[in-house]
Design a protein that fits this description.
With 96 residues, the protein is an alpha+beta fold. It is built from three helices and three strands; from the N terminus they run βββααα. The two termini are 30 Å apart.
C-alpha cells in the first residue's frame, strides 16, 4: 500500500490510500483518508513520511555542511584566507 494525496477541495489536499481489497474505483479501491492539509507541499511531505521517507539524508547533508563551514571559518581565522578547495566543497554540498 502506498499513500498518495489528492486535491479534495479548492484549497484542501487530502492524504490517504486506496484500499486494494475493496470495490474498485477508477483509481483503485476504496479511498481511505489519513489527513488534510492546507497546501500541496505539506501533503507531499506527509506522503513522503508515510511511505517510509525521512529527513535523515537532509540532516546528514546539513551536518556535513556545518562541519565544512566550521572548518573553513577556522582556517580563515588562522590564515586570514579560506582554502579554495574548501569553498568548492561547500558549493558542491549546497548544489547537490
Amino acid at each position: 500500500m502506498n499513500y498518495v494525496y489528492i486535491k479534495s477541495e479548492p484549497q484542501l489536499w487530502t492524504v490517504g490510500f486506496y484500499r486494494p481489497e475493496s470495490e474498485p474505483t477508477k483509481y483503485g479501491g476504496l479511498w481511505e483518508p489519513e489527513s488534510d492539509h492546507d497546501n500541496r507541499e505539506d501533503a507531499a511531505k506527509r506522503v513522503h513520511y508515510l511511505n517510509g521517507g525521512n529527513d535523515k539524508e537532509i540532516e546528514d547533508k546539513l551536518n556535513y555542511l556545518i562541519d565544512a563551514i566550521s572548518s573553513a571559518l577556522l582556517e580563515y581565522d588562522q590564515t586570514d584566507w579560506i582554502d579554495p578547495s574548501r569553498i568548492e566543497e561547500i558549493n558542491q554540498i549546497l548544489l547537490s
